[in-house]
Structure formats: structure tokens, C-alpha cells
Automatic annotation (TrEMBL):
It holds the Pfam family ECH_1. It comes from Actinobacteria bacterium BACL15 MAG-120619-bin91. CDD domains: crotonase-like. This is Enoyl-CoA hydratase. The keyword Nucleotide-binding does not apply. It is found in: Peroxisome. PANTHER family: ENOYL-COA DELTA ISOMERASE 2, PTHR43684. One of its GO terms (molecular function) is delta(3)-delta(2)-enoyl-CoA isomerase activity.
């Protein structure tokens, strides 16, 4: 069974992370599948919006650590880099329905979404520093811009998690709903009924002021991330994480 499910309904493409037994931890093949789906959707006139969601109780536990350690994404053409490029440059509305844990990239990808609906159980976290790494997906630029420097610094430097109410207060999430997927789909369908070129132009204008800055920061983050991944500090942090997980 595919680890990324896709379905198209009235102009809305739903992409579902489908690895619930692993809390939807993302592997290289899942990143590659997501990048392809987003790039194909960008050029498909029949697709007016994309909605990201997940099977099971959690959005995603972030990167699959074992897959990550075995195949570190250190090159510009890695599957992770392809996905980050696709989400940065996606020209159409991108929505997300989040429940349970949204760890690491599970939170940072939301900074590129136009509308995020979250369930009451959602927990967001970006524990990059805790793993000996640095923020990615342009989050070191986008997150402090969204929430203010000190709140961003505290969250990045402690690795602490925050709930849906805090995410709404920060502007990361637009609404809380016990059925985030149904709520997000309703908005997506509404958007899909709008004049499509006007929507694309509106998103381009909304993103125009930051796009090049985010792209430059993403590149710098990726280079430092790749170096950090191969550091002794990160290896120790990963091993500590894996041993905790095994208990």
C-alpha cells in the first residue's frame, strides 16, 4: 500500500501520509512522492487546491530517524530538498488538517500552508536543536516573523511542544475543530470554486515579499543541517533518542 495516498474531489487534491503504524514518520520515498504530487498538481489545471492530512491518530512524527541516519539528506538533489523546493514554490492554495503529533517538518511545513485547521489533540514541536540539528524548511526565518523572536528562540532552543490553542494564538493555525479534515475540506472546496487565476495571483502577491528571502534561508539552513547531521553531537543525540524510544 502506498505511503502517500492521493485523491481528487471537485478540484481538491488530498494527499494523505499513510504510515500510521510509525506515526507517519517520513521516509525518503515519502518525501519523493510528496514532491512529485505537488509538482504535478502545480501544472494540472484541474487541481485548484491541495490538502495535506494523515491516516491514524498523528499528523507526522517528523523524519524517520533510522532512514535519516542510514541515508542522510546532504545533497541539494536529495528527496528532502526536492520536497522543500516543491512546497516553497507551490503556486496554488495549500491547506493542512492536523491531529496528534506534528513533529519537526510536521510543523515547519505548515509555515508554507495557506490555511491550517487543527484538532484539539494536536501537539506541535520543532526539536531540531535537541537532536544536534538546526531548523529547516525556512522555519528559522518564517517562524520568528510569525510569532516574534523571543517566542521562536524559546521554542527552537528548548524543543518544547505547544498545543492547538497556542498555535492559533501564534497564527500558525487558523481554527480548531474536532474534525479538522472535514473543516479544512470545506474551506478547500470553497477556494476551489473561486476564479483560479485570481487565487494563484493572490497567493503570489501574499508570498512575494518573503519568497526570495525564504529561498535563501532554506539554502543556508540545508547546508548547516547537512554538516550538523554528520557531526558527533548529532550522532550522540540520535543514539540517545533511539535508546529512549526503545525503552
Amino acid at each position: 500500500m502506498s505511503e502517500i495516498l492521493s485523491s481528487l474531489d471537485n478540484g481538491v487534491l488530498t494527499l494523505t501520509f499513510n504510515r500510521p503504524e510509525k506515526m507517519n514518520a517520513l521516509t525518503r520515498s515519502m518525501y519523493s512522492g510528496l514532491a512529485k504530487e505537488l509538482n504535478d498538481a502545480a501544472g494540472n489545471f484541474g487541481i485548484r487546491a491541495v490538502l495535506l492530512t494523515a491516516a491514524g491518530d498523528h499528523f507526522t512524527a517528523g523524519n524517520d530517524i533510522t532512514d535519516f541516519m542510514n541515508n542522510p539528506p546532504t545533497s541539494d538533489d536529495s528527496e528532502v530538498a526536492q520536497f522543500l523546493g516543491a512546497i516553497l514554490n507551490f503556486p496554488k492554495p495549500l491547506l493542512a488538517a492536523v491531529k496528534g503529533n506534528a513533529v519537526g517538518v510536521g510543523t515547519t511545513m505548515l509555515l508554507h500552508c495557506d490555511v491550517v485547521i487543527s484538532g484539539p489533540t494536536a501537539k506541535f514541536s520543532m526539536p531540531f536543536a535537541s537532536l544536534g540539528l538546526v531548523p529547516e524548511a525556512g522555519s528559522s526565518y518564517l517562524f520568528p516573523q510569525l510569532v516574534g523572536y523571543q517566542r521562536a528562540a524559546r521554542i527552537f532552543m528548548t524543543g518544547e511542544s505547544f498545543d492547538t490553542d497556542a498555535a492559533i494564538d501564534m497564527g500558525l493555525v487558523t481554527a480548531k475543530d474536532s474534525d479538522p479534515l472535514a473543516h479544512a475540506m470545506k474551506i478547500a472546496q470553497h477556494i476551489a470554486e473561486q476564479p483560479p487565476q485570481a487565487i494563484i495571483n493572490t497567493k503570489a502577491l501574499l508570498k512575494a515579499g518573503d519568497h526570495d528571502s525564504v529561498a535563501a534561508v532554506m539554502k543556508a539552513e540545508f547546508e548547516i543541517f547537512a554538516i550538523s547531521l554528520q557531526s558527533e553531537e548529532a550522532m550522540e543525540a540520535f543514539m540517545k533518542f533511539m535508546s529512549k524510544k526503545g525503552k
